[in-house]
What does this fold into?
Amino acid sequence: MTLDTSAATPLPPITPSPATTSGVRPATIPASPGAVTGADVATSGLPVLTALVAGSVDTDVPLLRWPAEEDRRQALAEAGQPRLLLLSAGQPPPDDWDDLEDWLREPVDPVELEVRRLTVRRRADKARRRPWFDEAGLLRSGDSWVDIPPGQVPMARLLVERLDQVVRRDELVAACEAAGVSTHATAVKAAVGRLERRLAPLGLCLRSIRGRGYLLEIEDAHPDAAVVP
It folds into this structure.
C-alpha cells in the first residue's frame, strides 16, 4: 500500500510530501495512569481520546483507528490533511506514510497523544504556508501575499526555491546582477535587508549564516509546542 502523493501543487489544500518509510515512529513512552485503552474507545468512540487532550477535541488532526479506517486515511492523505493513527497493542504500523501522519499504540497516553498531535499540526501548518510566486508575480504564503519589487525578484525567487537551505552570498550577488542592481557588497547587504523586511509579514524569516550566506525559513506558528524529535 502506497499513498498517492504525485499531485503536488503550491495551492491549498496542501500536498503531503512523498511517502516514505523514514517517517516518525512513536517513542517508547510508558502509559500513564490516565492512559486510554481500546475498551474506552469501544464505549465512547475515538473522540474521547482527543477530549482528554487540553480538554477539547482537535478536529484539525483527526485520530483514526488503523487499519479499520484506511479509506478515510487515504482520503485525508490525498487532500493533504494531517492525521494520527491509533494502533492496537500488537498491530504493526503502515509500511508507508508521509510527513503529515504519525501513529501511536494503545493504551494511549494523553501526553504522548498531545505531543504527536502538535507535531503533525506544525508540519501541516508549514506545508500550507510554503511560499510560492503566482502568475502575476506576487509572493504568496497561505492566504497572504506581498508584492516584491522588480530589483529583488531574482533574489527572492532563489531563496524561495531553496527554502530551508543555505544560499551562498555569491549566488545572491549573481541574482542582484541578473536584476540589474549594484553588486557592491554594501548594496547587496542593503538589498537583503530590504527583502527581509518585505518577507516578514508572510511569516518568513531570512537568517544570516555567518561565513556562508542566507537561509529562508517559515516561522513556527506554534513555538511553544512540544515536538517529537
In short: Residues 1-58, 225-229 have pLDDT under 50 and may be disordered.
